[in-house]
Design brief:
Layout: H1 10-32, H2 36-62, H3 68-93, H4 99-115, H5 131-147, H6 151-176, H7 182-191, H8 193-197, H9 204-223, H10 230-245, H11 247-268, H12 275-304, H13 314-325, H14 343-352, H15 362-380, H16 382-391, H17 396-412, H18 418-424, H19 429-432
Helix pairs in contact: 1-2, 1-3, 2-3, 2-6, 3-6, 3-7, 4-5, 6-7, 6-9, 9-10, 9-11, 9-17, 10-11, 11-12, 11-17, 14-17, 15-16
């Protein structure tokens, strides 16, 4: 019986595999007339899908929400569609003038060496573009060693890595914030257009999103009610991946976890049953001090590489970033954060710009439309944000998410190109979206319709006898206890 629970619904698996196969073959015939590249991509996608479907079903059952398996499978199909669209845009609309082609050519060199039995990962033609770029090409080379030289195959592998990170972030939020609207968060993280499109190709964004998912899941194990020491190891594993690709992102994650751990430790002092949580978070702080030292050292080398004197400082690097990104047809004057007064403009810019009147091409129009959508979700969901502020003091994971987002916004407020900004912010959006993934706070006034709505947070189809756990009183140890039954005469008021 225990083994049977691991076996997925054969019908769903078959339908998913056939659907994926038909879609890929049709697109491949339309683009490449079924070349060896497309055929290898089809086989790779089929294998990845057959592995992913039972894993997603197991994840849904493991988290006690088997009905979410259909949402996860739909998100997987959407991710595959986003990957094909991204491939088409790069190879056809952009005539393959993109970083994906650079990584692919470098990967061919590595794959040729590995297949010849030569353990040499050096790529001479990328030596001048930085070690981080070379590492992405090396990862592509490892993929090509198994799949053959196929841009389709590498794109699908990278897209699945980013998708795994998105699923991990959903699981992290669900485990660390039981008061959250988990289904809403899943829809936001798994179906947001920019998250379906930008990380679905060969590139740094896909691996970064996968590593951020590991980092978030590790943080959730530290900040959940039943804390797990292994969360520190999981977090450090993800931070190591970030460090190898973009050292500054690893430092941002470490700072965010450090602030959240300190906050959770201070808030948890004196609460009954919080001793284990406090000790684990203190241990996390100690480990983070060492990790921050390593990340800072690596970041200093990264900043000073090829620079001397005053050019290697953080401020100089940020200013140089602003100058280097003021190219192309989407440049603008960024609201670089130098004082706290600059932060509101930076938040708006990094989250929702370009505005519709600032869009100069199709990509800009799409990015501005999504920006309007995000802005509308925050404005219309202000009561969800109020719930976030009410819940955050007892849920350090929310503190981790918002600190990560704020530090990211400060660092990337120097980006002076809307196209680059739209691609880069996919590394921050899943965490900042936690602010609008809470249940709405109760109304405090008579509604415009003339009646006073229920003060409790309504939740449809909830297994909780009194709605969502957020409606229950908080126990002294930070958990929740059952609400006493409502008297008969009070019901319905």
């Amino acid at each position: 019986m225990r083994i049977a629970r691991w076996i997925p619904d054969a019908r769903e698996t078959l339908i998913g595999a056939v659907t994926v196969g038909v879609v890929v073959l049709l697109v491949a015939v339309g683009l490449d007339h079924t070349t060896a590249d497309a055929f290898s991509g089809f086989v790779t996608l089929l294998v990845l899908t057959l592995v992913a479907i039972p894993v997603l079903q197991w994840v849904a059952r493991r988290d006690g929400e088997p009905q979410m398996s259909r949402v996860l499978l739909a998100a997987l199909l959407a991710k595959i569609a986003g990957t094909l669209l991204r491939y088409f845009v790069i190879t056809v609309l952009y005539s393959d003038v993109a970083d994906a082609g650079v990584y692919s050519r470098g990967g061919q060199t590595v794959a040729a060496n590995l297949r010849a039995g030569i353990l040499d990962f050096r790529i001479p033609e990328l030596a001048s573009r930085g070690v981080e770029t070379e590492r992405i090409a090396q990862a592509v080379g490892v993929v090509y060693t198994f799949t053959g030289v196929s841009r389709y195959s590498a794109a699908f592998v990278f897209a699945f890595i980013s998708f795994a990170g998105q699923v991990l972030m959903w699981r992290a939020f669900r485990q660390a914030v039981p008061e959250g609207d988990h289904r809403r968060y899943a829809l936001l993280v798994l179906f947001l257009p920019s998250l379906l499109f930008w990380p679905s190709s060969i590139g740094k964004e896909a691996l970064m999103l996968g590593c951020i998912g590991v980092v978030s899941y590790g943080a959730a194990q530290i900040f959940r009610d039943r804390v797990r020491v292994g969360g520190i190891v999981i977090f450090l594993s993800g931070a190591l991946g970030l460090f190898l690709i973009r050292p500054h992102m690893a430092l941002i994650a470490i700072v965010a976890l450090g602030v959240a751990s300190a906050f959770g430790t201070l808030v948890g002092v004196g609460r009954s049953g919080a001793t284990r949580r406090t000790l684990v978070r203190l241990a996390a702080l100690v480990v983070l001090v060492g990790a921050a030292g390593v990340a800072t050292s690596g970041l200093s080398r990264f900043f000073s590489e090829g620079k001397s004197g005053d050019e290697s400082g953080v401020t100089s690097v940020l200013e140089r970033t602003q100058e280097q990104t003021q190219t192309g047809g989407s440049e603008f004057q960024p609201p670089a954060v130098t004082t706290p007064l600059d932060l509101p403009a930076a938040v708006v810019t990094v989250l929702v710009r370009p505005f519709p009147w600032e869009a100069g091409n199709v990509n800009g129009i799409i990015a501005s439309t999504e920006g309007l959508l995000l802005g509308g979700l925050f404005v219309c969901g202000y009561r969800r944000v109020l719930t976030w502020f009410r819940v955050a003091p007892r849920r350090p994971y929310l503190v981790f998410a918002v600190v990560y987002g704020l530090v990211f916004i400060v660092a990337f407020s120097y980006i002076a190109n809307f196209g680059i900004l739209a691609r880069q912010r996919t590394q921050m959006l899943p965490l900042i979206l936690t602010m609008i993934a809470m249940y709405p706070a109760p109304r405090r006034r008579v509604s415009w319709l003339g009646f006073r709505p229920d003060r409790r947070i309504p939740v449809a189809d909830s297994a909780e006898p009194d709605g969502h756990p957020a409606n229950r009183p908080t126990a002294p140890d930070g958990g929740s206890r059952p609400r006493p039954p409502i008297p008969v005469e009070s019901r319905g008021r």
